[in-house]
Amino acid sequence: MKRLTYFASVLLLGLLLAVGAMAQADAFGPVRSAIRNSNARELAQLFAPSVELSFDGDKQSYSATQAEFVMKDFFSKHAPASFEFIHYGGSNEGTTYAVGRYTGKEGAYRMFVKMKTTGSTLKIATIEFTKE
Predict the structure, then answer these.
(1) pLDDT digits 0-9 by tens, 95-127
(2) Which residues make Cβ contacts (< 8 Å) with residue 40, sequence separation at least 6?
(3) Domain that holds residue 56
(4) Minimal CA–CA distance to 58: which of 113, 104, 127, 114?
(5) Dihedral, CA of residue 57, residue 86, residue 67 and residue 61, to nearest 10
(6) How confident is the model over 29-47, as a mean pLDDT?
(7) What is the domain count for the chain?
(8) How confident is the model at residue 2 (pLDDT cuts 50, 70, 90)?
(9) Residue 115 sits in a domain of what CATH number?
(10) Residues of the chain with pLDDT > 90: what percent?
(11) pLDDT digits over 48-103, tens only?
(12) CA nearest to 128, candidates 42, 46, 30, 61
């Protein structure tokens, strides 16, 4: 009987972790779509009022409107050949993040996207690109 209870507990915990990971992946679906399509306007709709953008360690904070133009410039110079998130994570404070691989004509980048809860929705607070 103890064995059955233990097995049921482990199975339930596994299911809860899987559901949490899928929920995080779903939150990043619109981000993934905007990046794959090089659509800075669509991406900007997901920005928090202030966004930190980093390109190879050069970090700057921008308003959502300014960040849209910075991302539009980046996409025009480094159009994606492929993009995929490879890891998702989060904190108890409502911050979620994803790590991805962005491959363009000029090379590959490790990409980090952090989202924070603003009001009742998740908004992009940080995007970092690091050339591999």
Answers:
(1) 999 999 999 888 999 999 999 988 888 999 999
(2) 34, 68, 69, 71, 72, 75
(3) 2-131
(4) 127
(5) -40
(6) 96
(7) 1
(8) low
(9) 3.10.450.50
(10) 68
(11) 999 999 999 999 999 999 999 999 999 999 999 999 999 999 988 879 999 999 99
(12) 61
Tokens 């899987």, located at residue: 18
CA–CA gap between residue 118 and residue 30 (Å, rounded): 16
